[in-house]
Amino acid sequence: MLDRGNEEGFDENGATPFLDQYEYDSNGNLTTDPYKKLIISYNHLNLPDTILQTGTANRIVWRYDAAGNKLLKEVYNDSIFLAGAYTENSYQAGALFTDGQPTALDSTILTARDSIRFLPGFHAKPGFRLTAKIDSTLVPVDQTTYIGSIEYRNNDIQAIYHSEGRATPDSSSWRHEYVISDHLGNTRVRFSDLNGNNSIDSTELLSTHDYFSYGMSWSLGGYKYTYNGKEENLEHGLNSLNFGARIQDPTLGRFTSVDRFAEKYTSLSGYGYAAGNPVKYIDVNGDSIGVNLLNSSSQEAFNAFFGTKEGKAFVSQFAAKGQTVNGYTFKADGKYHTQDIDLVYSDRDFGKGEESTGAETTGGTKGGTFIEGRLKLGVSINTTAEETSLIDRVTAVTHESFLHVQEYSFDYTDNKKLDFSHDPFYNKTKNNSPSSRHHLMFHNKPGAPSTHPLATKGLRVLESVNSRNNLGYSRTQLWNKIWTFWD
Length: 487
What we know:
- The protein is α+β, with helices and mostly antiparallel strands.
- It contains seven helices and 29 strands.
- A hairpin with a 3-residue loop joins strand 9 and strand 10.
């Protein structure tokens, strides 16, 4: 393991503590970092668009679409490139020498600062006056284009990313690389079957990744989607993580701009990460509906659920205006979002003996789980459930959403308490667990099997998934899955 830490502590990088200060604009965005020697500007969406390294021409430029999705990153260096062969540049041929050796193709021989000057080893011949015309349009030394899950580097395809890793060009074919992530989505191991023998040995481990609590890496491995699966930006001393809505500085454990939902968490810093507990929580862009699914089967189940009209409408109740899930941007605050309820979809291994449990709902028992006055509900999918078909996994997500999450939400919004006061039928189920009370209400309350959201909207979710994927189930079979499901 390679420790990238500094034994002497925080590097002041020539800045003077207390005199050189961090500076912010009127929207609370960090504009000057004297310790990294960076100047940052932002667009109208408060997304960083240009970062300059002071005293140099080094810069990083981002471009976004109207919704704030990243499209392009360009990196510029503190150099001017004199392109072409030595003898083909009239301003260069016969006027320069490099200690007797001709310059190579595309040589970098000048730096752009207050004036143009030679790099060490380059000289003008006696009697020659060298001039250079510098195009006002700088040419980036590195350019990354983002088109969905495909990334191009300098106009050549670099990789196609997916939930389990990526595919990269390898001569005339593709190399398939896979990653293993921990419970927070942090990339821990990257490997590839390099010799094609369908097994992995130590020589095929491409990189391993370890982190300090807030994401600063202990190791180098050539893979840029690391902590929380977010993209690293290491150029020109930026050393940050791009979380999409904001840039996070892992050395400080804070963002460079304010959480747009900061007014909901008044006792927490608007720049803080994961409520100060990065070992337990993640920060999903500061939004109110979270999707943190690491397993491809869980992702497929949620995508199928969310891809239906009823599933999207259900999730929208917990979303904030402007939030994007699976490429869909919500146009208004959901009714439960405005009632201080948040919802996260996640997955985990429930462990041995729990294979019959497809999913569970958290945050609604023992008076509820609250952070800063907001109820935190969650749907957790069992990655080792014995029922593995798509329709069974979607049934689990549908059941937890339209029965348990829905009932907890009904209950909390009637009096801001989780006390089963929203429906008189619950008076008959007091001696049962909260989950069992929900089941008893659905099965035993007169009219519930035909009017409850699980019976109406939930059934339509399964019908849509069944139809779109040509699964061949009858309506009766789908209803039986809903009726007999017991978590």
